[in-house]
Amino acid sequence: MGNMWGGNRGAVERFKKTNGDLFAQFEKRSNPDQLINNPRIVNGNETSQQIEKTFCEILELDLITLKSHLQTDQYNAYTVLCAFVWRAIKINNGINCITELIKEAFDTAEALDDAYEETGEKGELFGLPFSVKSNFYVSNFFIKFQYILSVQMENYDVTVGLAKLLEQPKTTTCPMVKFLSKQGAIPFCLTNVPQGLLSYVSSNPIYGTTKNPWDFSRTPGGSSGGEAALLAAGGTTFGIGSDLAGSLRIPAAFCGLVTLKPTESRFYVTDTHGGLPGRGRLGLSFGFYTKTVAEQEFLLRQIVGNPEYLELCPMSSPAELRDTTLDIDKKPTIGWFVDDGFNPVVPSNRRAVEQTVELLRAQGYKIVEIKMSEVSEEFPPFAVANMLFRNVMPDNGAYMSEMYGGEQYDEYMKLFIRLVRVKQNVLISWLIRYGAMPLAKFLFSKRLACIGSAYNSDLAACRQNQENTDIYKLQWIRYWKSKNIDALICPSFITPAQPFEYPAQLSTGAFITGLFNMLDVPAGVVPVSPVNQDDVDLLNDPVDGFPLEGDIILRKQRDSAQKSVGLPNAVQVITLPNCEEMCLRVMKIVESVSVGVQRLQWRSEEDRTETMDEKNTPAGVISSHEYFKRIPLHISK
């Protein structure tokens, strides 16, 4: 049994004991019953009912309004933190999205309030509790508030779900976390990721499986899935994550959130576990999860090009967000496609794009159809997909195979891990590439054959693939310029949120997101509507709905999208490199013309009486409704 944990079973058991104790402490410290007459609680602290009422008022506010209320003393940092910890722990009991709580959070809130009392000054993000994807380093650093040295953080592990990395705390801190803390925001928890990061199901043997708050039988995506799930459920003000092949965007699409993957150099971040050290030509980007585009823009304005951030991370671009691009009157010209030429999307995701484009056309926007097959004669879409997956594993999976060695495999990642490890056997790898994959192309799936043959036979082949990537990037930009477009709208992913067992079988879907890491361009996600019954009915129409082409991958894809009515449905917005301002502008336009998706709101114990059609409602949705109400999202248009 010890070998199942890489010989680290004792560390796993010690962690679970310590972590359980800390959750109990946080639950007690944030319990309204324990806060009666606590002088740090504002707006009434004589009864638990008063305190709970204040907490609920805080938790219903959007980020911008809460920030304003904190700046104008309607709330203090301590009360707001207690409210979010109180709610986040309840949420975590349902969907298992938090891996660790940051011990110093309460001390940080107290220090913020005390510093304000002494100086009368507040940082721009004063008192906003936020969650941190657990691949970000958080270690021994002092949080400084208006030149008052106050709270010292301890060192935290970054395990990414691997037992061998327990009890190896980091000694540096991610500059993104440090900057946000210096502005007065409070990191209070770390959130779940896939085992080793390289998947879009957030599950691992140490921390367990994170559920999508919209449907407890489905994944919130990955690798930033814990972040997205917690924010969608209302347990944090905003989240931060990373994106190597869709790790911000897939969870945003699955959970009904907004995010923007910037150009890598526009907002550079260090001191994180990137998932794949020494990766090929893939832009590793970092960003935020928010509920609206306005919140996204607000947070990006705080950090992108900020001189204080550049002091912490000099490799980041000094270019701030330019108002001229964000606010100009001229309507942008918008391109679109629904077919990437490699992996078709299901009807709901196709409709999301087509419906958005028609709404924009009706508003007078010039719309231009883009065809991926026209971008390059030299590299058709299947060749580009092969190029992408060779960039993901330039060493053919050797690093990943070693990373997973000696570990207990997560039940939802077993297939992926075994495929990675079997490629390290030279004979088996040769048979797969030259025997099984050509056969698979004709018998099972040309898409599976494409990624199965993504192999760099030697260093020269690896170099050639990187050169081809550079050539394709230039061809992409030239094609874009020839179409005279300012932005592009395309599917956010191949399906809505999937049941847990499907991501390991549908890695081909990462092409629609990973392509834009390979191109290293801004890529945002905006929720536009829920999946409807017509979308699901079309799934089962092989002629006009979702042709299967005799492909086992497409059959799995169809099956993964069954019973998805009501789940969030989103689009991607793409721009040229370093044009984040235009990306935000078009995201805001898309948001303004779309119906959007509802928001989840926590149900009180007294409110858990909603009647549902249990016969025709998926069990995971019924479980979700026990915890969350669906409420309209109000966005200023």
UniProtKB/TrEMBL annotation:
This is CRE-FAAH-4 protein. Pfam families: Amidase. Gene3D superfamilies: Amidase signature (AS) domain (3.90.1300.10). It comes from the Eukaryota. Belongs to the amidase family. It comes from Caenorhabditis remanei. Keywords: Hydrolase. GO terms for molecular function: amidase activity; fatty acid amide hydrolase activity. GO terms for biological process: fatty acid catabolic process. Residues 81-584 form the Amidase domain. The gene is Cre-faah-4.
